[in-house]
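Re: the request from the purification team.
They wanted to know what the chain is likely to look like in 3D before they choose a buffer screen. I agreed to run a prediction and write the result into the notebook, where they can find it.
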Amino acid sequence: MRVISYRKVSELDALLRTLLEYFSLRACFVVPSRRDREWWRSRAGLQDFGLEDKPNAFLLWNWEDVYKDLSAFLEAPALRQIDPPDHRLILSHLVAGLLREKPGLLALWPGLARSGFIDVLSDDIRELINEAVSPEQLSTTVDEGKPTSRVLPELYERYLAYLREYNLLDSSQIPLKTLALLESGGTAWARDKAFVFVGFMSFTHGQLALLRELEETCREVVVLKPATGLRDFQDAAAQLESPTLDPPLTSGRVVALVAPEDSLEPETVARTLALWRAGEGFCFLSFPGFGAIGISTPPQRLAAMEAALRRYRVPYSLARGRGVSQSLLGAALKPLWAAWSQGLEPGETALLLAQPCLAGSDFPIEGAVRAGPRGVRGWEEWLAGAPDLENARRAFKAMVKFCRLVEKGASLSGIFKALREFLTVPGLWTDALLDLPASAAELDGSVRELAASIAEVGNKYLALRELQPDLGPAGRAVLKGATAVNFLESWARETLVRPAPPLDGAALLYAGPPPVLASHPVWIMTDVTQKNWPGLIRASPLLDAPERETLRAASAYLPSVHDKHTQKEALFRRLLQTGDLLTVVSRSVVDEDGRPAGPTSFMDSFIEDMKLWEYSEVGNPGGWFPAIEAGSEEENGRSTPFVQESPLARPRLPVSDLRELLDCPFRYWLRRNAKLRERDTSLFNAAEAGLLTHKIWEAVWRSRSGSLPQLAAEEWEKALALEGDYSRFGRLLKDKRLSRHVKNIGFYVARLAQTQQAALDRLAASGLRHSEVRVETELPPYEANGVTFTGRCDRIEVFENEFAVIVDYKWGKSGSYEKKLNDLASRPYLLTSREKFHYGLQLSAYALMFAEPCPRVVGVGFLGHGDGKLAGSFEPPVAASYQPGKNKKTELFLEERMEEAREAMRCAAAILKSGRFEPCYVAASCRWCDMKGICRRGEFYGEVPTDEDEEGE
């Protein structure tokens, strides 16, 4: 098996042609999705190879095509693939059955009866299938003392059994089903084939198992994968254990557009393109024509982006059809059911009837509201008294008929039949829109999408009428009320209508990510903020970190939150390289709620790793939105609050506060000097949990009478029993509402004990032994520019060879304490030529303050409970023991850290000696700061204080 890396998609051109010639046109090319096929064909230049005349000599498949071809070869019984809404229908049926059998579960876990539980369950089951986790492996996660822990394993086993019983196929099962067919007699099918997997950055474990079997049976397997440059990312080469050299670094340019308001971001992008076309604005590249441009926007922002492009006369075509949920049909479902369930109140019902696809704009809304009809009888009587409202009477009658059936309940096919009848009433829906005057030409696209949506309803009804017997009892279940409407809305979100034919010379607009094999000379990504990249990544409540670690011990693997974060960063890097000549990213200063929307942290690491790429930000030349931007006199009239106090003669500063002071002096003064803190209203207190873990590790390292995992387990049992000093943590450890957090703390302690024991084992194997371990050690004070800096180390490990390692425990993730402090040039209170402080300043200061020449410091590191890892800087001879396999810096690295600490201390001393504490509005702490109302940041950015994000400490 060979794995070949590429960076930009355009590099595939030569690779694909070479492989086509190498395999003499006898190869099976597998792409990630059907959307990639046309892109592949345009890349490979099929006409040059005469492939259009040899359809049997060239195969271009996705996973489903591989499965179908092998099934046909073996004449295996066909399994009917279910749609995502049908998948949810089966899960709803299984959950209802489980609750009938075990009604006590609902009292223990009321969320089981909520519709949102199906969303969580669906995601988890698909993840389990994708990663080839067996029900037996999942059963190892069951906690015998917790009945609710059996819910997921039981539903997972029932779901797989249901699919087997009724010969159904979930799309996530396709690789595993293909593998089963291959092992049961597909050798002859695969023997003469060569497979080329194109565009796969990584594989699920189900896909990996299939690839390894293909490697054993077919002629050859080649994988063409995008290179991301992320060292910690388990890409296809690492998964397949295939040595692969990344291709040479390519050059590129990223230009960032920053809009002042969230609603103006689409305007900023559209106007930039219009100005560029007119010869103004961008000077990086001559305008390549709109046909060379691809634009990606989140699905929820598609309508706003289309409106902006039309306003600035930028021609565009949609890459994919809109979802039915975005058509007039999808927009009407929820208001229709809401009006019915609320008793057909006058205002809501009148607005509904006045829609263009029902009674139309001629419907007298004000007259209906004044008359005040309510309920079916009231509206029928009022409409009967108005002879000129024939369309309204027809629309109301159709609405009532459909809503009554939904309220009464029907099978799934019956629900879709009723919806189709409602949508095809003569004079309504498409008929009503077609009767609009020519002046309403802007609705032409809506008419086409509505007609296509109605056709999809009919197709779904016919498919269900045929499939309903095959779906088993789930297909025969009666849906009614909100449950039926929720299913229709789910189906509308999942179902796309065919887009309009593309326009020549028009930009291509994507709602969401493009196909893997897509590329454009100019690529534009919108909403590139920290909120979206990486966004909020959380583990499932059904498959949290302890369950995932238990599965790993059972030889099953599910990606952790850290893995998903890395996967998101790899995707971001791949998308940035979609542009052959130029990549444009846009963001707003604030989000839709007026809260700050900072740039993604992924961009800095990408530019740093790629070396040859350039990054720049573009302002608004000439003032693009003068009616909205503040005038210069208004800007000059704003005053930034600050604190001025008489400095102490000999100020003192703990180095644990060093970064907070440099990040935002105003926040530091409010929290440390004014003693202002927002009242913590959450039940779980992370600071208290951190104190508990510190107490455990202090006891473990003072004892050191056995293995660390054993000692940590013993201390954890003492803590749970509230023995000795642990009695102060009774509220945390005994409150039943915090049981999940307590379970996580125990898991974090056990995991971190394993990490530390592994380091000790490697030290012992290297012949390195401790002479002493100092716990909770006060360091000698350090003087810098008249300021005294103090510090207290969690642990100092002194070795017989007369060197030392300093370790600090943190409740959060280890890597978060090594993040950079950026934008130093924009902070007038920092008198330094540096652009950023690169490393964890607290540890750097510890190394500087540890003044003993012997032992000398050879390593400093943060141990994070949040990820169970160690981050820091280590030199020989301990580097290989504390951070095995990591690329090491030179021996001067710790000296560089200490020099950086000296510089940071000088900057901090200047602030303290001046007595002036200014706010910094680009500080990293702005995301979670509880002092934003005092610093008046919201006055500048329209920010609403929120507790959505938590401080990492």
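For the purification team: Residues 252 and 613 are 5 Å apart (CA to CA).
Please add any questions underneath this entry.
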